[in-house]
Design goal:
This protein is α/β, with parallel strands linked by helices. It is 41% helix and 15% strand. It folds into 2 domains: 85 residues, Rossmann fold, CATH 3.40.50; 124 residues, NAD(P)-binding Rossmann-like Domain (Rossmann fold). The strands form 3 sheets. The protein has a 6-stranded parallel sheet. α7 links the parallel β5 and β6. The structure holds the ligand Nc1nc2c(c(=O)[nH]1)N[C@@H](CN(C=O)c1ccc(C(=O)N[C@@H](CCC(=O)O)C(=O)O)cc1)CN2 and magnesium ion (MG).
Length: 288
């Protein structure tokens, strides 16, 4: 029997907990605040940002969306980030990715106060994750959401083999770090990897984040493996599909995420969770 990991349902459960935490803070006169900066008119980004705003508002988080024209300068963008850094009502700041060409995304992310870096993309927080430093700091939401999915399966991860296909800054690299921190033996594959199938067939946990439609097929998966599909691709008919051939892999996997309704909803739920984390952590610091 294969388990379908229902990201929508799990996201609902995470969101319900977040809503309770927001209510408890609000009772103390504190409202978590999230500032989302979006630059230009990328349609997909506009939809993701609208969904973030809607969800934050539903949960009682004070959500501010700052829409800027593609012509905004690097210096203007930095000044806007700095203003949110200085605003005590804002606990989480994020810049929707990708930015239009000409803007240096990394330089802008580096100006976000690491304590307000709700995406976990600031180099200080990335470094903390990779060094597995103790303490409270934000991490990238998609892989954190995937760790929540793995937790929900009550697996024994220690010593098992994980393969992450894709080495992006947002997903592949932080995912690998989180799996190493969970005591798994981790390999990261990418576009130059030779004999990909040989590697993926060793995985007890296989995370695929490449943007290549149906890259992973039935024979690339070890029987019983946990298969996490981060892909959001369009097939030849324009239908949303993943990096994994779900129908082919389904009854070979032990558990598998669907697309849509798998990792995507967990990314937004984790973002909300992390906004409230940052708010609570800032309060604890303030009370010390
Ligand atoms: N600053 C950031 N930029 C981007 C991030 C991010 O975490 N921070 N991630 C992605 C976009 N993204 C959130 O920003 C995101 C993408 C997709 C989904 C989602 O729920 N997908 C649905 C399907 C949606 C559809 O039908 O198109 C699903 O998988 O079920 C959530 C968040 C890049 N940029
Ligand atoms: Mg999905």
């Amino acid at each position: 029997m294969t388990t379908i990991i229902d990201g929508k349902q799990l996201a609902k459960e995470v969101n319900a907990q977040t809503k309770d935490r927001v209510a408890a803070l609000t009772q103390r006169g504190i409202t978590p605040g999230l500032a989302v900066i979006i630059v230009g008119d990328d349609l997909a980004s506009a939809i993701y940002v609208r969904n973030k705003h809607k969800k934050a508002t539903q949960l009682g988080i004070n959500s501010i969306v700052r829409q800027l024209p593609a012509t905004v300068s690097q210096a203007e963008l930095v000044a806007i980030v700095q203003a949110y850094n200085a605003d005590p009502a804002i606990h989480g700041i994020l810049v929707q990715s990708p930015l239009p060409v000409g803007l240096d995304e990394q330089a802008i992310v580096a100006t976000i106060d690491p304590a307000k870096d709700v995406d976990g993309f600031h180099p200080l927080n990335v470094g903390r994750l990779f060094a597995n430093l103790p303490g409270k700091y934000p991490v990238s939401c998609t892989p954190r959401g995937i760790m929540t999915m793995l937790d929900s399966l009550n697996l024994h991860l220690r010593g098992k083999r994980a393969v992450v296909v894709g080495r992006s800054r947002i997903v592949g690299r932080p995912m690998a770090a989180m799996l190493i921190n969970a005591d798994m033996t981790v390999s990261v594959a990418h576009v130059y990897t030779k004999d990909l199938s040989e590697l993926t067939r060793e995985a007890d946990v296989l995370v695929v984040a490449t943007g290549v439609t149906h890259l992973i097929k039935r024979n690339d998966v070890k029987p019983g493996a946990i298969v996490i599909d981060v892909g959001m691709d369009r097939d030849e008919n324009g239908k949303l599909t993943g990096d994994v051939d779900f129908d082919g892999v389904f009854d070979r996997a032990g558990a598998i995420t669907p697309v849509p309704g798998g990792v995507g909803p967990m990314t937004i739920a984790t973002l909300m969770q992390q906004t409230v984390d940052l708010c609570e952590w800032s309060e604890q610091l303030g009370n010390d």
